Amino acid sequence: MLVIYIEYREENDVNYKTVFGGIIQLAACTAQDIVQAITQFYTKHGLDLQRIVMLTSDGASVMLGKHNGVAALLKRQIPHLTEQHCVAHREDLGIDDAWKDVPLMRDVETLLRTVYSTFSRSSVKRSKMEDLTKVLDEDTLSFRPLNEVRWLSRHQAVNAVLRNYTVLEEFCKREFTDNRDPVAKYCYKKLSDSKFKVTVTALGDVLGELAQLCLSLQRRNLTVMEGHCFARAKIEKLRSQYLKEKDVQWSDRVKKAMETSTADGRNTGEITAFIGKLCDHMDARFPEKEWSAFDIEALSSDISFDYGSADIATLAKKYEAILHHPQSLEAINSQYAEFKYIMKQKLKQGSISTFSDMVTAALRCEELKEISQLVDICATFQASSADCERGFSLMNHIKTASRNRLEVAHLDQLMRIKSRQEADGAINLDKVYNHWRSVLEVVIVVGGLSASHCLVRVVRELCDAAKPGENMKLLSSKPNHLRTSSSGTLRDQLGVHCEGWSSESPPPHYSRSF
């Protein structure tokens, strides 16, 4: 199953939207089959394939393989296409690589897995742990598993052990003393090691920082430039806090753990080695000069007159085919100097502070109408495939074991409705029902059902009986009501009502993530 989300901007609006495009049943999961499905999707809905400016994916080789991945095959048809490895996946891979490089991290992982397995498989031990918690008057947190496909699983697992550390150590001590439990012996040996406690406590702080970054990288409509800025800022913060030769800024809870430790326990060499390797791996995945031409931090500093000119010339040449005025390449290159100093003044005045503010200012400035075309394209770039991950979660929530025969067309329609609800609020069920009656001239009685069940029942009945065009028409909705126009297309579903976007003229710039 292929899930498609689309980011776009309406012609007379400065805001960018990411919306559910649709789901496609694949005949096979090869790059060729995926490209064919994408092409057919565009043809079916009358969209111009050449308007794609970026493909964002999770980094799987079938999607981003250098020679025969989906992005590589699409580039043969769309020369200006840029592929983007999801920033959240990039961060997770950086953590994973650093984790494998430090032996002590493998010891921590073994303990985390052992603790979770011990309590998840034994209700007796869980009960004993709960009783001990009450005796010691401690607040506890359920132990969490390490999951290869969950971005925050390491942070959650370490945080749970830290919250339960005192109770867990005492529990393992009693289990070993009373029952000679070898697993409890192993856990107690690790937990009573002062160096191990300092390491886990410091690791909890570092993973907490990375969890905050991960949540930032999952934001809706996050641009590549913003994602890169968040990642670079976190790298610099970790280096400044932990990798100085002197005056490392440990948190209060780490200092407290050090106070009760032996001299060896205060040796933080391995945890700082982990942080150093982490920053190095993150550096490789978020290079400093990437997207420097529109780096708002760089533009706010003292820059030379020719700063970014080479990058702008490359971008203008790359997207020449989809610029409104392709003959204005020279004007774009010369206008970039004006753009830099206008934005620098706006930053000084405080009228803009983020990349999104800069994009809005450029789009509204008549003097920057040429360079704003490139700014518009770059602002459409999607940094993360988190929307698609949320889409798969939504799909699994709808297509449960009891509804495993739900067909792709119905699933697509239900996901579209649910996505609309999450974005714009509740749908007016009375108008849905009245529209259904007006189209089919059929009256149904839905008794004893909640509002959500009524909506699903009505929509499923409509999808069963109505023509494809009518199905689309039903879902061509604006906030809080459904359109009753007979011209229902994918453009209506996306909420795109921009002037000049007809079958003869291409839609606005947008990128797609999978």
Brief rundown of the structure:
The protein has helices at residues 31-44, 61-64, 70-77, 87-101, 103-120, 123-136, 153-163, 165-179, 182-191, 194-217, 224-242, 252-259, 269-285, 296-299, 309-318, 329-349, 355-364, 371-380, 386-398, 408-424, 429-440, 451-465, 468-474, 490-493, and strands at residues 2-9, 16-24, 52-57, 82-85, 477-478, 481-482, 510-513. It has 514 residues and is α/β, with parallel strands linked by helices. Helix 10 packs antiparallel against helix 11 (224-242), helix 11 (224-242) runs antiparallel to helix 13 and helix 15 (309-318) packs across helix 16.
How does this model look, in words?
It comes from Xyrichtys novacula (Pearly razorfish). InterPro entries: RNaseH-like_sf. This is Zinc finger protein 862-like. With 514 residues, this protein is α/β, with parallel strands linked by helices. It has 3 domains: 1-85 and 385-514, no CATH class; 90-285, no CATH class; 292-371, no CATH class. It has helices at residues 31-44, 61-64, 70-77, 87-101, 103-120, 123-136, 153-163, 165-179, 182-191, 194-217, 224-242, 252-259, 269-285, 296-299, 309-318, 329-349, 355-364, 371-380, 386-398, 408-424, 429-440, 451-465, 468-474, 490-493; strands spanning 2-9, 16-24, 52-57, 82-85, 477-478, 481-482, 510-513. The chain has a 5-stranded mixed beta sheet. Helix 10 (194-217) packs antiparallel against helix 12. The model is unreliable at 442-453 and 461-514 (pLDDT under 50).
